[in-house]
């Protein structure tokens, strides 16, 4: 699916103040030129290889699979990248584009802090000035990442509006962009926002899916039965799925956060329980009330704590090409513990949602089948959250 | 009457001292849910030429802190897009003749249904819509729906807007052209930048419609600075600040502030 017009079926578009529309046009032009520029592509490939640590391995998880009693489970190890999550793929690419456009100031929003850290890292490397907007509540939940960004020379601006989470940080980042658009590039961290961001982020993240598909073919000599990824805004998922969309036999599963449960109202599952609307510049499924006011999301994982979702996911939901399911806070934490104990890998709470669904899927498949799950990030940042959740009980791991 | 004709006519009237026409922005349901009609009547009595009724939204991307806070208060008070339209109708029933424009982000409109919202707004006596997150590129459906119900869809242009985009937006504009004075969000400012005056001159070459300058205007001196440069001026955040300072008499505060915008102290 392409978005030449900025649309994925009825979704997408560019619903932003007129002030930034010329900057979006400039970005479209820069993207097109960069895509055709072998020098730029080589520069990006070198960065991804030498600096970020690509390609990432695929790791077989035999003890986890045995516990599920079914298919093989493979982990695509985005957690092993520099800065600890897939976000660096996008940040490095967008900062290169910003340099190409002659923009010396970078802004970003962040929820869990992974995108903020990735952008701060890319800016430190490139010698660009960086400001990251982060909700006050997220700064509390992810204090270590806040300090990490400061170490990297980035200014972190607390956002007090709303619930003080990712939605509010994104509002403030867009307002900054509206005010400083001439010299500033806004590095959006997910496959959301106005056209061309959903397409740009997908193109920078599809390396996840391309590597996974190639490795399945070279090592397993076939495509996987199922590919599973968590969906907040949806960047790791769209990057993973992009390579498999034409492989109709591969089942694609996106996992939203059910928070305290879909019926509690405290969740982050717009594709499951929302209806289409406009937030942050694009038309997509959205958690909103009957009057069109956007609702506050909830998830134990700050990176999924967002009431909207990338527009391509909305189109993939409607077409049925991707199935979207949910995992609750509780289910994600249990999956987190299982991967720690059974495989010696501490996953991000975001990725733990995907792990829960992958376990369910694997348990229903025969032993010969293969399930690949995108381990989008490492869980070091979440240890405090899990510890608080478990009441610091040493016996909590399941 | 073609869409926006009442608005256009109201803004083109030549005024005493050559001042631009004054358009206040009033957050519906602020500071109290039932204050909207009183503040609109105060605006009419103070000599304003038209009024914008702001429908609060949870995520107002184009607004600075003052209008954000007023919007949150209004949402907390229970304001909705539907109720704002009902209050516009109530203002008409109370005898208000001022042309009225609804300023709303697109999502509450889509949530109600674009056509249904436009039908209800027109029936309430509203003259037009301003949608700050609906650039011309996304406005085809909204142009069709507003035109079908006799409403103007007022475009916004900004200092960063290149001439070809100004031309495209102006070609299907009605009522007036909203010229954003700053590269930024709403909020009272000290002075008017040169880029604002330059924008007004650029817009003149693309449209015969009245030009309303907005964002940042806060004082009578700003009105004086705009003499001969545009036909209308919008004041929002500074008005809300005035109302916030006297929340138990929002209408009185609005009347005093708006008179101060129009007349030297």
TrEMBL record, chain A:
One of its GO terms (cellular component) is cytoplasm. It catalyses: (1S,2R)-1-C-(indol-3-yl)glycerol 3-phosphate + L-serine = D-glyceraldehyde 3-phosphate + L-tryptophan + H2O. Residues 52-377 form the Tryptophan synthase beta chain-like PALP domain. Pathway: Amino-acid biosynthesis; L-tryptophan biosynthesis; L-tryptophan from chorismate: step 5/5. The keyword Amino-acid biosynthesis applies. The beta subunit is responsible for the synthesis of L-tryptophan from indole and L-serine. Tetramer of two alpha and two beta chains. This is Tryptophan synthase beta chain.
């Amino acid at each position: 699916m392409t978005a030449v017009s900025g649309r994925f079926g009825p979704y997408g578009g560019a619903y932003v103040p007129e002030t930034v529309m010329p900057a979006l046009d400039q970005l479209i032009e820069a993207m097109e030129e960069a895509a055709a520029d072998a020098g730029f592509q080589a520069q990006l490939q070198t960065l991804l290889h030498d600096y970020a640590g690509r390609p990432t391995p695929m790791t077989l998880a035999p003890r986890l699979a045995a516990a599920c009693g079914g298919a093989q489970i493979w982990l695509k190890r985005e957690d092993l990248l520099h800065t600890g999550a897939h976000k660096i793929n996008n940040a490095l690419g967008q900062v290169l584009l910003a340099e190409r456009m002659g923009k010396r100031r970078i802004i970003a929003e962040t929820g869990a802090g992974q995108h903020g850290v990735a952008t701060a890292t890319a800016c430190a490397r490139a010698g660009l000035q960086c400001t990251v907007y982060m909700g006050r509540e997220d700064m509390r939940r992810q204090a270590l990442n806040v300090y990490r960004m400061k170490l990297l020379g980035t200014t972190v601006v607390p956002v007090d509006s709303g619930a003080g989470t990712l939605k509010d940080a994104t509002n403030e980042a867009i307002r900054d962009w509206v005010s400083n658009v001439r010299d500033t590039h806004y590095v959006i961290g997910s496959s959301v926002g106005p056209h061309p961001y959903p397409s740009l982020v997908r193109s920078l993240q599809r390396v996840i899916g391309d590597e996974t598909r190639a490795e399945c073919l070279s090592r397993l000599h076939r495509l996987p039965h199922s590919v599973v990824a968590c969906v907040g805004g949806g960047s790791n998922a769209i990057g993973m799925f992009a390579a498999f969309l034409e492989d109709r036999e591969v089942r694609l599963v996106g996992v939203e956060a059910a928070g305290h449960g879909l019926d509690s109202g405290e969740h982050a599952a717009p594709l499951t329980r929302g209806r289409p609307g406009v937030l942050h510049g694009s038309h997509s499924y959205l958690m909103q009330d009957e009057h069109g006011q956007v609702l506050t999301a909830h998830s134990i994982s700050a990176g999924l704590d967002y009431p909207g979702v990338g527009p391509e996911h909305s189109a993939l939901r409607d077409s049925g090409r991707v199935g979207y399911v949910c995992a609750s806070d509780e289910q994600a934490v249990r999956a987190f513990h299982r991967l720690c104990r059974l495989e010696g890998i501490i996953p991000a709470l975001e990725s733990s949602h995907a792990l829960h669904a992958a376990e369910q899927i694997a348990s229903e498949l025969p032993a010969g089948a293969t399930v690949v799950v995108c381990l989008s990030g490492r869980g070091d940042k979440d240890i405090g959250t899990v510890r608080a959740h478990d009441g610091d009980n040493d016996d909590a791991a399941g | 009457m073609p869409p926006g004709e009442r608005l256009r006519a109201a803004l083109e009237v030549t005024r005493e001292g050559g001042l631009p026409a004054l358009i206040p922005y009033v957050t519906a349901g602020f500071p109290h849910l039932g204050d909207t009609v009183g503040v609109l009547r105060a605006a009419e009595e103070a000599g304003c030429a038209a009024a914008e009724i702001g429908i609060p939204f949870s995520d107002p991307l184009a607004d600075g802190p003052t209008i954000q806070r007023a919007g949150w208060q209004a949402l907390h008070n229970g304001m909705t897009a539907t109720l704002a339209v009902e209050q516009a109708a109530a203002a008409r029933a109370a005898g208000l003749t001022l042309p009225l424009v609804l300023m709303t982000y697109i999502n509450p409109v889509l949530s109600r249904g674009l056509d249904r919202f436009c039908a209800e707004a027109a029936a309430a006596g509203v003259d037009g819509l301003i949608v700050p997150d609906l650039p011309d590129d996304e406005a085809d459906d909204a142009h069709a729906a507003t035109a079908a119900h006799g409403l103007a869809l007022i475009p916004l242009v900004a200092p960063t807007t290149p001439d070809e985009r100004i031309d495209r937006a102006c070609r299907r504009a009605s009522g007036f052209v909203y010229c954003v004075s700053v590269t930024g969000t709403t909020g009272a400012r000290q002075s008017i930048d040169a880029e604002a005056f330059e924008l007004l001159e650029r817009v003149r070459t693309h449209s015969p419609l009245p030009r309303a300058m907005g964002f940042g205007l806060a004082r009578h001196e700003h009105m004086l600075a705009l003499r001969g440069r545009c036909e209308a001026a919008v004041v929002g955040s500074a008005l809300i600040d005035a109302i916030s300072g006297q929340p138990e008499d929002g209408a009185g505060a609005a009347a005093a502030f708006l008179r101060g915008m129009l007349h030297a102290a």
